[in-house]
Amino acid sequence: MQKLNLNNLPEELSSGRMTMDECISFLWEEIYRKPLLFGLSGFDQDQVSDFLIYVNPRLKDILSKYDSRKMKFFFYLRQSLALLKTCWIRKIQRERMVNILNRQYAENTLKSQMESSGEAIKFDSEKQRNIAISNPQRSLEIARITALILLYKNCNEIDDEILKNVARFSQKDEKILHEKIQKLRAITSRRKELREKIIFRRDNAFFFHRKYETYLSKIEPGTESYLQLLKMYYKKTKCWIRQNELLASRFKTVPPNRIIAHELSISERKIFAYLKNAMNEKSSFRKHAENFFNSLPEKENDD
Known about the structure:
Layout: H1 9-15, H2 20-33, H3 45-55, H4 59-64, H5 73-93, H6 96-99, H7 104-134, H8 136-153, H9 160-170, H10 174-187, H11 192-216, H12 224-249, H13 257-264, H14 268-278, H15 284-294, H16 298-301
C-alpha cells in the first residue's frame, strides 16, 4: 500500500482491490504524514489530527463523487480538502481566543499556588466577580489584563493571529507585544527542545489513538480483529496519556509568574487570581473575549 500512487486510488476502489475503509485509511495516513502536500501549511500536528477527525466521515463522499474525466484525483482531493479546511477553520475560529485557556499548566500551577495562598486568591477572585457586576468598565480592564497574562503564559504556543487579536482586545501595540513574546520565549528556550520531542511522541500516539478509536467503532466487538485493534488502541492511549503527564508536570516552557507580574506591574497574587477567575466558564473574561471576537468582521475570520 505504501507504493500506491494516490491518483490510482479511485481505480483500486472501483476494481475491488481495495475496500472503501482501506482507501479512507490510506488517505488519512497520507494527509497526516504529508500535511504540506495537501494544503495544510500552518497546521501543527494537533490541528492536523483534529482536522482529520472532522474530515474522516466526509472522505467516503469525496471518493464516491470523484470524476476521473475532470481532473486527476490528487488535485480533486486537494480542492475538496481546501473547501473542508475553510469550513473547519470557520467552525473553530470563534473559539480560538478563549481556547488559549486550555493549557495543562493552568490547573497544575494554580493547584499548588492555591494551596499556599488559597484564601487571598479566593478573595481576589470574588472581588473580580463583584467588580464585573458593579463596574463594567473595570471588568473590561481586568479582562484585558487577563488576556495579556494568558498571552505571556502561552508565549511558546500562540501564533500571529492570536497575538493580533489579543493586541486588539487589550488595546496594546502589536509590535510591542511581539517584542515581549520574543523576550519570554528566550527566557524559556532551554527546555523547549526537549519538550518538542515529547510533543512529537504525544502527537503520534494521539493520531493512532484516534485512528484506532474510529476503526473500533466499525468492527464487531468480540471478533479477533476487534481484540487485536483494541490491544493497539490501549497501547497508544497509554502512551498518549503518559506523554501528556510528562508535558504537564516536568517539561513546561511557560515563563514564571514573577516575570509576568513584573511585565504587567501587578503582584504575583493577582496573576493567580486572574488565572483562577478566567478558568471559570462564566467568568467576565470569557464573556468580554467572546463578545470581542464575535464582533470581528467575517472577512477577518476567514483569513
